[in-house]
Structures are given as structure tokens and as C-alpha cells.
């Protein structure tokens, strides 16, 4: 690692595949299943190693499309790292999100790429109402990431997410409810005003007759009212 890759897109693609094959770790692949990382095709390369490779590669939209279509865990995550957010269309996002079948590829793609596109807000709202588990999760991962990374967004953007969080708190699927909870907590840690509103949402959820909603609310309330969070927000 550390050598900038040069050549045509096709040559760089071939070099990346060669590097991934060299870094392949069968033991790592076995260990991933423990964390519910279950891709059909996988080299067993770590995220830090992929980040180094992405840095050596630079941004390349065409290369990203080629890597994604290869279908390996590592090529798909790497695609999300090297793609240019400005060139990503909603059509591409819809095509890629349909390929999500475990949490890691969902979260990596949303954090590395989708959250940085001009379409993130709209897709967060759209995907939050979808039936597919990892498409819906993507909507709430985007909300969580926007709350952390989009420093310029107005509070109203995140206030729009609260009704969606309450609506989908009924979804008991593990990877959905955890993402709903994540979004609520991250929004509530953004500033004092959003913290107050997130606490109100959390309190309502704790009174729900649905176990998933109660868990989301109780867990979020614990963090949002914690001394550490309150101290940071009131600095």
C-alpha cells in the first residue's frame, strides 16, 4: 500500500483485483459471520486496508461502477469509497441499494458515498418507508450520518425525520430497529433544541405497546439524557 495507482481505468481495476487477491484472508472471512457480515463473495480484507487502497486509487466514477458490478464484498465497499458523489444519480443509488443484503455493505455505502450526494435527504425519506430490510435501514443510516456530518443543515431537516422515526419504530426487524434508534440518538446529540425534541420522541416511544418501539425509546433516552451528552451540549 502507499503507491498511487496509475494507468487506464481497466488497468487500475486489474491491479486492484490483484491486490485484493494478495490480501485475501480465509480466516477473516470465517470470523465475519460472527458479526452478521455474510457476503456471497468475499476476500476477507479489512476496512482499513480498503481505505488505504481507496486512497491510492483516488476518485473514479467509471472504476466504481466496474468494482460494484464485480460483486465481491471488498470491490463493492471500495466502489463506495472511490466513486464521485457529484456523479452519482438517483438511478444508480436505487440500483445499488437493491444489492444490499447485509448490514456492513449498507452502512459503508451510505457513509462513504450516499450521504455525500445531493440526493441524500430525499432518499432518506423515501427509503424509510420501503419494505426491504436493508433499503429501509439505509434510509435511517442516512439520517444518522447527516446528523453528524452535515454541519450546515437546518434543524428543520432533522425535525422532518422525527415522524418517520416514530412511524417505523414498529418494525421489529433487528437491523431496522437498530438503525431507527441510531438515527434518533444522532439527531438528539446534534444540539440542545434537537436534543429536547428527540427526548420527547423517546419518551413517547417508551410508552408504546410495541416491544421494538419501547426498546428504541428506552435505549435512546438513556444516552440522550446522560450526563456526558448533556454536558457536551450545554458547553
Automatic annotation (TrEMBL):
Which Gene3D superfamilies is this protein grouped with?
Answer: 1.25.10.90
Q: Which SUPFAM superfamilies match?
A: ARM repeat
The UniProt entry, under PANTHER family, shows: DNA ALKYLATION REPAIR PROTEIN (PTHR41291)
Name used for this protein in its record: 3-methyladenine DNA glycosylase AlkD
Which taxonomic lineage does the organism of this UniProt entry have?
Archaea, Methanobacteriati, Methanobacteriota, Stenosarchaea group, Methanomicrobia
Amino acid at each position: 500500500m502507499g503507491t498511487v495507482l496509475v494507468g487506464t481505468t481497466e488497468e487500475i481495476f486489474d491491479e486492484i483485483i490483484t491486490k485484493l487477491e494478495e490480501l485475501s484472508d480465509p480466516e477473516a472471512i470465517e470470523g465475519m459471520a460472527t458479526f452478521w457480515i455474510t457476503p456471497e463473495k468475499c476476500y476477507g480484507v479489512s476496512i482499513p486496508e480498503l481505505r488505504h487502497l481507496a486512497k491510492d486509487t483516488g476518485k473514479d466514477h467509471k472504476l466504481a461502477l466496474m468494482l460494484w458490478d464485480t460483486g465481491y464484498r471488498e470491490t463493492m465497499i471500495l466502489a463506495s469509497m472511490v466513486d464521485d458523489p457529484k456523479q452519482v444519480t438517483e438511478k444508480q443509488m436505487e440500483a445499488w441499494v437493491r444489492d444490499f443484503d447485509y448490514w456492513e455493505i449498507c452502512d459503508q455505502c451510505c457513509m462513504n458515498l450516499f450521504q455525500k450526494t445531493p440526493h441524500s435527504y430525499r432518499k432518506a425519506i423515501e427509503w424509510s418507508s420501503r419494505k426491504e430490510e436493508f433499503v429501509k435501514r439505509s434510509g435511517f443510516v442516512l439520517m444518522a450520518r447527516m446528523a453528524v456530518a452535515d454541519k450546515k443543515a437546518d434543524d428543520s431537516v432533522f425535525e422532518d425525520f422525527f415522524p418517520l422515526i416514530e412511524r417505523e419504530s414498529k418494525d421489529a426487524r433487528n437491523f431496522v430497529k437498530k438503525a431507527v434508534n441510531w438515527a434518533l440518538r444522532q439527531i438528539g446529540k446534534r444540539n440542545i433544541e434537537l436534543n429536547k425534541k428527540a427526548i420527547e420522541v423517546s419518551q413517547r416511544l417508551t410508552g408504546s405497546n410495541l416491544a421494538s418501539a419501547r426498546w428504541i425509546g428506552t435505549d435512546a433516552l438513556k444516552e440522550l439524557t446522560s450526563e456526558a451528552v448533556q454536558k457536551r451540549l450545554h458547553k
